């Protein structure tokens, strides 16, 4: 297939501004993204689709698999308007391309002949990726955990070479204080639970701050950012890491703790295997173990605000019907109470 033509409706990477106006913010962000719009965008970018279109499981963005006339299917991701700037998206594309050049198994965005990876159509920014199949890794196997650790170590060794300039950090403010403030300011919590939520989140944020104090000063590096099992595809040749959309600057432990599960003893054994492979390529600071439960707490706070901020999206109401119910917030308050205790326990010993 000839190189896709991304020139006609591309973003201005120098200024970071899109060459077409953004969708009307007063309507739902993806209201105008019809199947016809998706196919037209791909055709304009130089891809000859055969009409087969399959919506994939994605909520933050819209992701589709499209059949091609002259080759294997391609994956197209339409970015949620007003979430990331163009510079931030291009910075992520550049990081993944850098990893790919180092023969680390990631899936970079396709680049046009003139070096562009973020075309636009009808006000939507999108990127095209080669389809990468695979299955979830079997983390009950020690050698699988070691293998994952080695590749994450390679990602982090590359990620430590320079910093992001346009993407938010993963820290107490962006994942803790700001989500809490949003939920309280927008009356997301039932009135009879507001006092309990304020009280427990104050304790949680204090516990997170103590955890960071115990961890001390640490290196902040470019991360995958959301390295859970759904973003790791396993084949006979090993793992592939996909979806760097949440890539940020943060502590290395963020890409490791999401692979842990079970009892404390289970997690200790799992982490030991992961670290055995990881340290072949990157040094790990053991004091970062103080952050596991703090980062879990931050993820909980951020997740609730993420759901609330996207609640006008019909896909969220369909996928998360339990959100914003009395039971949902009662359960979150109970979970956060457990986190307060867990953050004051000794860290994993590996």
Question: What does the model show?
Answer:
This protein has 350 residues and is an alpha+beta fold. The protein folds into two domains: 96 residues, 2-Layer Sandwich (Phosphorylase Kinase, domain 1); 202 residues, Transferase(Phosphotransferase) domain 1 (Transferase(Phosphotransferase), domain 1, Orthogonal Bundle). The protein is built from ten helices and nine strands. The strands form three sheets. The protein has a five-stranded antiparallel beta sheet with strand order 1-2-3-5-4. It has a two-stranded antiparallel sheet with strand order 6-9. A hairpin with a 5-residue loop joins strand 2 and strand 3. Helix 5 crosses helix 8. The N and C termini lie far apart (50 Å). The N terminus is likely disordered.
Number of domains: 2
Percentage of residues assigned to helices: 40-55%
CATH architecture of the largest domain: Orthogonal Bundle
End-to-end separation in angstroms reads 50 Å
Number of strands: 9
**Structural class, from secondary structure content?**
alpha+beta
Indicate the mean pLDDT.
Answer: 91
The CATH first-level class of the largest domain comes to: Mainly Alpha
Please identify which CATH superfamily of the largest domain we are dealing with: Transferase(Phosphotransferase) domain 1
Strand/helix succession: HEEEHEEHHHEEEEHHHHH
Major sheet: order of its strands?
Answer: 1-2-3-5-4
Over all CA atoms, what is the radius of gyration?
21 Å
